[in-house]
Known about the structure:
Elements: H1 30-44, H2 51-58, H3 62-65, H4 72-84, H5 97-113, H6 119-122, H7 130-145, H8 150-176, H9 184-200, H10 208-211, H11 214-219, H12 222-238
Helix pairs in contact: 1-2, 1-4, 4-7, 5-7, 5-8, 5-12, 7-8, 8-12
Amino acid sequence: MPTARPEPGMPTPPGRxxxxxxxxxxxxxxxxxxxxxxxxLDAEGLEAVTMRRVAQELGTGPASLYAHVSGKDELxxxxxxxxxxxxxxxxxxxxxxxxxxxxxxxxxRRVYVSHRDIAMVSMGLIPTGPHLLDVAExxxxxxxxxxxxxxxxxxxVDTLGMFLDADAxxxxxxxAKTPAGEDPHAFFEEYFGQxxxxxxxxxxxRYPVLTGMVKELTDADDDGRFEFGLxxxxxxxxxxxxxxxxxx
Length: 248
C-alpha cells in the first residue's frame, strides 16, 4: 500500500526526506528568449548564441524555442532590434541637423559596442524590426529636415549604417586581441607601436609616400579615426543640400 504524502502545511514524518519545492519556471516567451540570448552574447560573443545554448540557459529543450522564434537568424535579428531600443533618438532641429546626425551616430556606436559583436548581425541586414526602423526614421528625418534630397538621404542612410557597423565590428576584433587581465589601451599602444616601427623601416625608395607619413598614419586613436570618418560622411551628405528641399 503506497504511503500517503503529507498534506500541505504538515511537517515531514520521521525517517523521510523533506521534499524540495520546485522553483517556479519562468514562462517561455519570445521576450525571455531574446533577453537570454543577449546575456549569452554579452558574456561570450555572437558565435556562442545558438538555439541549443539559449534553450540550455532557459532550462528547456531547443524544440520549445521554435514556437516563439523560427530559428537562429530570426533570433539574431530580434536581438539586434532589442539592442536598438536602447538608442536615444533626437527631435530634429533643422538648424542643427548635422550635429544631431553625428550625435545619433555616436549613440548607435555606443550601444552597439556595449554588446560585443552584435553589429555583425546588422551588416547586410535590411531593418524590419520596430526599433531599427525607429533609428532609420530618425536618421532620415534629420537629413530631410536639413534639406537633403530624398534620393541622397536614402543612399546616405545606408552608407552611414555600413560605416557604423564596420567600426563596431572592427573594434570588437581589435579588443578580442587583448590578453585577459591586461588594460586594452596599454596593450594597443604597444601593439600599434610595433606597426609604427615596421612602417618606418620599409624601403623608402619603394614606399616613399607611406614612409614619409608614418606619424600621420599611426597617430590617431580609435575615437579620432571614427570622428574623422563620421565628419567626412556628414560633410558629404551636406554637400547635396538644396535650397527649399524639405520633407514632403
